[in-house]
Design brief:
14-stranded parallel sheet, mainly beta, 6-stranded parallel sheet, elongated, 6% helix, 274 residues
Length: 274
Amino acid sequence: LPVTFNTGFKVIYENAEANDIAIKKNTSKVEFPLNGGQDITAATASLTWIPNPLMSEEDLLYFVGNQTAYAGETAKLGQDIVLTGQWTPIDLYGTLDGQGHTISGLNVNMNGGLGAMCSISSGAVLMNMTVEGSITYAATAKNSPTGLVGHLHGTMYNVTNRTTINASSSADLLYLGGLAGWVHGNGKLIDCVNEGTLTLGTVVGSGYVGGVAGVIYSDSGAGLVQGCVNKGIVKSSATSTGGLGGIVGVQESGMMAGCVNKGNVVADAVRSTG
């Protein structure tokens, strides 16, 4: 002392015996003077403990519902988890490691919004898991992405999608992918598999659908789809389909390498625009 934490500070409590963890953060500037102190109860009060690894739907929902506190942290699944309610898509800021387990019962039915399990921010990771369920997405804005993940700025590694996804849009440019709707910036899809059925329905304008990703596009041109496999049916019933593919609907930048399509790609009497 004295010291200034310009971006705040983090307090981590660990209960080694129970293997539980609680994290509280103060994200604003804090100064600790030489001859005094600071009240840190705002960062330490009302601690909520979660198992590490996550063992239940309640644990998982608490983790994804408190991404501000858990940004940059890693949570792991300790067993398969069955979801019983409607899932609200979230922004993932940390790492969620499934450790080979399955999240089943995913149920997303949205008009607008992310329309998927989550959006993955830069530096965040979704890895080593299988996800099963259904996603129904009705986009209301231009440039809308959907899939297991809507916007991918971070990394998906060794993730298998077994959700059935049906998407439509009342606006132009809908991007539908089994793993990710839109791969942005340095977003990466590595060793992922789609086994779900994807159906692109009515779109006012152009729709793009790929078994792994709807679109790879970023100003940096650094997006990557590598070692991915599509085994699911990729189908478009839209009257205007801008791109339809087993792996990617449209690749405007970035790189694809070592990917394989094993699923059927079906154009259901559509007029292709590219």
